[in-house]
Specification:
This protein has helices spanning 25-28, 59-65, 81-84, 105-114, 179-185, 207-217, 234-238; strands at 4-10, 40-45, 49-53, 73-75, 99-104, 130-135, 141-143, 146-155, 158-165, 168-170, 190-194, 221-225, 245-247, 253-255. The protein is of the alpha/beta class.
Length: 256
């Protein structure tokens, strides 16, 4: 099996951590694991492909911090600003040809409306350009010979997707998921899943809800992402978790 490397570029919720104007213990923490940019990740599949998952407003800083890695394609979970707000920063990756983007049809419509200058008939010199592939939530697709399986989940009332590639599943902004997605997750080696905070939230899983999914899926290991400052500090929260569950942090790299 081809070796894969997952880099967490950002592991925070839409406000990031620390949150502007907050003086809580998490926001005041000196632990670098408590400094969270908006959620995104980079998955490198051997020498075959390198997938960027989401392109939030911190993307420029994240890519520079990661050494400006190669990107084969952008995979988009949904079109909320904290997941696509930095897409213009991908323009260096569009210098030779449009960067492939894989997303649901509603996401494509939102992107065309938000950055119309990237899709204009007469392009302004230097603007980023994208080759958008509209995907379906129930149909796997192939990129550079790599199979990518969309994982339909619900972000409150909004249908969005996670992705399964090899023995990795990456899910963010999920509140609930259908049994069909749960079945696709069973048996994965590594599960990345969102857990916003301890208290119930209308559109994101709480810590206890994420742990319930992990217990049902039974991955060898699981990592929590898309955390808010209300989760508490990394050190204090991780000490309460099962042995196979860890909290992801910015710049963490996993080998699969």
């Amino acid at each position: 099996m081809t070796m894969m490397k997952l880099t967490f570029l950002g592991t925070g919720t839409s406000t990031g951590v620390p949150q502007i104007g907050c003086n809580c213990a998490t926001c005041r923490s000196a632990d670098m694991r408590d400094k969270r940019l908006r959620a995104s990740a980079l998955l490198q599949v051997g020498n075959t492909a390198s997938f960027l998952i989401d392109s939030g407003p911190d993307l420029r800083e994240q890519l520079l911090r990661a050494g400006a890695p190669d990107i084969t394609a952008l995979l988009v979970t949904h079109s909320h600003y904290d997941h696509v707000g930095g897409i213009d920063d991908l323009r260096p990756y569009c210098a030779k040809h449009p960067l492939p983007v894989y997303c649901l049809a509603d996401v494509e419509r939102d992107l065309r409306a938000r950055i119309p200058y990237c899709f204009a008939k007469h392009l302004y010199p230097g603007v980023p350009t994208f080759d958008v592939h509209s995907i379906r939530p129930d149909e796997p697709f192939i990129v550079q010979g790599v199979k990518v399986t969309p994982l339909p989940v619900m972000h409150y009332k909004l249908p969005i997707i996670g992705f399964k590639i090899g023995q990795l599943a990456y899910i963010t902004d999920c509140k609930t998921m259908p049994d069909t997605t749960l079945a696709l997750l069973r048996g994965v080696d590594t599960l990345v899943i969102n857990a916003l905070r301890h208290k119930e939230h209308i559109s994101h899983m709480s810590l206890s809800q994420a742990l319930e999914v992990i217990a049902a899926v039974k991955p060898r290991r699981a990592y929590l992402t898309h955390l808010s400052h209300d989760m508490g500090t990394h050190a204090a929260t991780e000490a309460q978790l099962p042995d196979n569950v860890r909290i992801a942090y910015d710049t963490l790299q996993l080998t699969l």
